[in-house]
Amino acid sequence: MLCCMPGVAVVPALLVGWSSAAFIISYAIAVLAGHVEPLVPYISDTGTKPPESGVFGFMINISALLAAITMYIRYLLIEKQNESSHFVRTSCNMFTLCMGLMGCTGMGIVATFQELAVPSVHDIGALVAFGSGVVYITLQSIISYKSCPRWNTYLVCHIRMAISVISCIAFITMIVFASKISMTKIDWTPGEK
């Protein structure tokens, strides 16, 4: 199986490296071009105007593909471990994979439809990406607990669950504050609401 092949662990590392580079490069281009303020802009703001929008879109789409491959490898790994331990139903593992792939699709939508060009589609893509991502990592945390102690340590499970809780809190906070904003805009002038 693919998950048992040597070297497959490079895919998640490549995902983290490539995604980080996507955010850093598009941020640097946007700041140098004067399109965003250097102090903590939204990720989407750094990929709104050309030329950074092209770089952002291309690199995030590659990140979405790498994330999908990583999730599929994790799915195969759990299937293989489950053959001998029977710690999770196959349907649960498949549902978790589908949630993850839905998040990757949302990432692709965010990358393809810029924040200011098509804000409603961009926002729906972000909602799908982040919402599905929170569900995916929460389900992966639960699967990790079910596979203890044979396939995971409790420390790893606790760390995964802590990340899930933080992600859930961040997602809820994002929804609350995004609902308070009535318009999408990058440049604000003093005195604007």
From TrEMBL:
> In its UniProt record, which GO terms are filed under biological process?
regulation of autophagy
Q: Which InterPro entries match?
A: CWH43_N, DRAM/TMEM150_Autophagy_Mod
The alphabetical list of record keywords is: Membrane, Transmembrane, Transmembrane helix
Where does this polypeptide localize? Endomembrane system
Q: Does the keyword Membrane apply?
A: yes
Residues in CWH43-like N-terminal domain copies: 8-182
Q: Which family does it belong to?
A: Belongs to the DRAM/TMEM150 family.
Query: What is the protein's given name?
Result: DRAM1 protein
This chain's source organism reads Donacobius atricapilla
Query: Which gene specifies this protein's sequence?
Result: Dram1
